[in-house]
Amino acid sequence: MLGPVILAASRSDRLRRVVSAAPVTKPVVNRFIPGETVDQIVPIIVDATSRGLELTMDVVGEDITTPEQAAAARDAYLELIEHLKVLDLGTRAEMSVKLSMFGQSLPAPAATPGGGGSAPAFRSGHELALANVRPVVEAAAAIGTTVTLDAEDHTTLDSMFAIHEELRKDFPQTGCVIQAYLFRTEDDARRLAAAGSRVRLVKGAYKEPASVAYQEKAEIDKAYIRVLRVLMEGDGYPMVGSHDPRIVEIAQELARRAGRKPGGFEFQMLYGIRSEEHVRLAREGHRMRVYTAYGTDWYGYFMRRLAEKPANLLFFLRSVLTKN
Predict the structure, then answer these.
(1) Residues assigned a catalytic role
(2) C-alpha closest to that of 83 among 139, 147, 30
(3) What is the pLDDT of residues 254-272, one digit of tens each?
(4) 242 burial class (0-12, 13-18, 19+ CB within 10 angstroms)?
(5) Are strands 287-294 and 147-149 parallel, antiparallel or unpaired?
(6) pLDDT digits 0-9 by tens, 179-235
(7) How far is the CA of 83 from the CAs of 74, 89, 120, 141, 269, in angstroms?
(8) Are 128 and 91 spatial neighbours (Cβ–Cβ below 8 Å)?
(9) Separation between Cα atoms, residue 11 and residue 51, nearest integer Å
(10) Spatial CB neighbours of 181, under 8 Å, sequence gap ≥ 6
(11) Whole-prediction pTM value?
(12) Beta-bridge partner residues of 238
């Protein structure tokens, strides 16, 4: 299977340099990431909302190695929120954040030799991520929108869920993401499917070992439907993250059986994939939210999009062979 190979490549600095330098890369990347700056992304937001769509905005970048980089990621989201405020689009666009960008994986500061000096500003990456994401959640709430915490690899999830629980004490609309391919996810879904919760269900796009995750597509699809049923039958607000036409149909049927009207759940799909389907679902009265990423550190995000769907990889390779 090519997917795991591509996911491994997403962590390779050497391949990052090769792919980034290829002349054809930028036009292909633009299919999934329509801008690098907030000024470039504003017209995309305006156009999408004018067509009845909603958005969740992701400032791409995960390889944070210093607290200063984590603070810069926080500030990039605050800048985006300020633009949404000026555009009066706060109710049409939410934020998606990866806590790794906010310093979640950074080690605790080294102790000061001799024990002198002031106490460190944070004791762990977990605490730093919570401190950085809280002002983003506060600013989002102030303009009438919210934040969803993206799921990353399985080793980060306990921290993510703990931060999610802490944020919901003051901002109960804060959402989170669960991944169908992980064995733990059905239990997580039952815990999260409570009144007031917002949960996005995706299949999963990280390379995970067989000890924690299903490896075959058929098993992942079955798990997705099982978890989706739990969410639809619960008291929370499900967000169906899938481009699969069969899952879109099943989601509508599960919602109908659970007595949910179109406004009682939503579909989410990636920018650049099945764009006509985005509009079709919105015209049918469904809430349709487009996951829209932007920023300069696009490599990891781009490689996962290639890994998720063979057609995306073939599209890229064909462009390289014919133009590079």
Answers:
(1) 150, 200
(2) 139
(3) 999 999 998 999 999 999 8
(4) buried
(5) unpaired
(6) 999 999 999 999 999 999 999 999 998 889 999 999 999 999 999 999 999 999 999
(7) 15, 9, 33, 14, 23
(8) no
(9) 36
(10) 203, 204, 208, 213, 214, 220, 223
(11) 0.86
(12) 199
